[in-house]
């Protein structure tokens, strides 16, 4: 781990600002990793009061007399001006500096009246003869940054300047304890037993510890205002595409929420419906079903085509994988053969995402695929597959996990190629698997058994599907819903119930299963 700071002559300096290093300083936001250009080739780091004068104290990096246009002409900071009479005087003005990518608080810019100091205009130590007495000062918090070139990123210490060598060593020791992501509480307790540490260092340690966890749990971010959602997915998020081309699913589909079939493969709302609701948007209709499409959700009569600005400002959601893998399994391909096809599937996905980006998309919300080996249509058709503790077919889940690994790698590469867009990778697999592994904990029962189906251990048969009518011992039988879909995980052997979809949404909306860990309403 690179050290965040070192102490010389009673002052704390960040390692990248040493007088021996005249390179361009490169930092990233400590929350989202977005690169922030805080450096300047003209900065003479060894001279306080130079053109880009610098002082560091109490864990604050202060840049003096920086050209204010840098904060408006380049994509570094998003500034929100406001007045704070109590803190900065009756008419004192200050401006928050926020990471443009995630909105995390980076520091503060404010007007400052200080004694005059010489302004150095070149690389020499001689003064130009000009003096600066009143200027805008920028305080950038060390703990809001991370070195862009570091292999491991730590949460820099909120430190105090001191000429005490022992204190400096203790501060470094405490700094090494504070890693990101923050350790759990049980892991932290042993760290508190430092009998040799001074009262000052213990105080700093506890304060930094609190701030580290507070920043990880509730960083300051801005809400997005998505005017629309464009969804790309399989039948788990289909809101009418299949129905427009072929035929709509029959009753009892849709019975829980819509009380009638609603072109969705569930008893009620899908995950994409909860996402739309969470963003204050109406439910999605199929783009193929032009009569039902309404992009102008704020008006009485909708347009059949979205406004042009919607394309760049909208949220683009992706929920793929399950159908791609299942197609291979049901085409008599072996698990190994399906596994070998995964890179090609992911490459095609990457190509499609790049094409969508070229059309103006900038906010991408990408789900990985779920544990396909836990679904009745896999379990009933491949009964000899090895089972795990939850009763799921292990080889098929392993293919899904491999798909997710390759998908995440692809998302990482796409991020590098398009740094001005937001690509949020969401671990749907872990959330869905918890429903099968610990159903009672989440208020569910019989997770491997279809709610709407017929036949066998898993209440599923490819020939006797949900909503159909069959003959049983000479009697016509309608395949309908179970008594209480609200406590069931799987609806028809392939898709999830509304209750399960609601549970999944509740888990992912806060960003705990996202990479980067950004809530849904801030994924822009």
From TrEMBL:
Pfam families: At4g08330, Lipase_GDSL
Keywords, sorted A to Z: Glycoprotein, Hydrolase, Signal
MF-aspect GO terms: hydrolase activity, acting on ester bonds
Keyword Iron-sulfur: no
Source domain of life: Eukaryota
InterPro entries linked: At4g08330-like, GDSL, SGNH_hydro_sf, SGNH_plant_lipase-like
Family, per entry: Belongs to the 'GDSL' lipolytic enzyme family.
Name recorded for this polypeptide: Uncharacterized protein
